[in-house]
Write a structure and sequence with these properties.
By secondary structure, this protein is of the alpha/beta class. The chain is built from 15 helices and 17 strands. The strands form 4 sheets. A 7-stranded parallel sheet has the order 11-10-12-9-8-13-14, sandwiched between helices.
Length: about 425
Amino acid sequence: MGLRNQLETEAAAARAALAHLTDSAVAETLVAASGLVRERAERILQANQLDYEAAAERLDAGTLDRLRLDEARIEGLASQLGDMASLAPLDRTGASWRMSNGLEAAERRIPIGVVGANFEARPNVALDVAAQLLKSLNCVVLRTGGAALGTVTVLVDEILRPALEQAGLPPGAVGLVRASDREGARLLVSLPHLIPLVILRGSGESTASLARLAAEHGVRALAHAEGGGVLYVHPSAEHDTAVRLIEQSLDRLGVCNRLNLLLIDRDAVAMAPGLVSKMQTLGIDVRTSAPATEQGIAGNPLDAEIGHEWANDSERVATVTVHVVESPGEAADIANDETSGLAAAIVAEDAEAAAEFLDAYRGTAAFWNASTRFTDGYKLTGAPETGINVDFSPGPRGPVTYRDLWLRQYRVVGNGSESR
């Protein structure tokens, strides 16, 4: 069977399963999946170890970190599935009103249908995304790259599909593209009659190119291609607070919401040595812009754009840019104009300065004395995310969870006598 036929078969099976999904059966599925993750943890780890060993010499440290599962991460996956099961189902009824002609109108939230999800070396995403979509009564076709395909195949065939069957649901509600060929990703975004929406998780140009291809084929894409957290240090900041936020924001380097750009107010430059020292003790290569160098901040010269996302730079993942600004307004402008708009934080004791920065920043999440690492669906809302949407358009923005994965429908009831 050719790849296109295989994908169409998976999508058709998912479409056929839609009518069988109910809130109670999905909750039962997620409880069963949580138990199977714990029961079959060794099997998952074995598959993941094979994936990791095969990719060790060709992937950078950040990508390998995302690929790797261990006992703690396995337990985290099981816990998240259990938590998802216990969350309240999506409320299907919105506002309602009576029209002047007597018609009764109401907003309804209906499922999208079959949703595609493309992600690379992130096996945990298979469970996160599938759980989100099932919880919103949608079905899914998953596609991952060769680095994680072995692990994801186990998660689909030995966790998700058996859990669906235990709950009396068709196992085809979760499909999988069973090939590592990049053509699988291109096909996933090219079937609007079967898969009208695709969630794209990845980095850089490859994800952006898939989003453009989806648009050409009339497929809507929620693309999470870029990130990079910003931290602005105001003169009123407590030095120890700034140090803690830097440490918290660099606990993992291969994630989109880590510290990427450190902005230091000109009047706060005295704090710079301590902040740079903290980053260097964490193994970070500090890259200073011309204004930062002029202010005597130690570091290697910046040889990239101010907002260059180091997490996507396979050769220099362990890097942070340092730049000097004149005010909260300039800091917000740089965060708006030079970065993806994922997240930015201000560390300050001055409430007016914090308000100026927060009000001027237009990204998906803004923080005051808190780390951008909290730009995460599970941390912010209690539900794992399918991705983070940074688009400047109406619809779900920021961390996208099951509460966002629906279509609006107007339901109108009359008796046939009403007129326009």
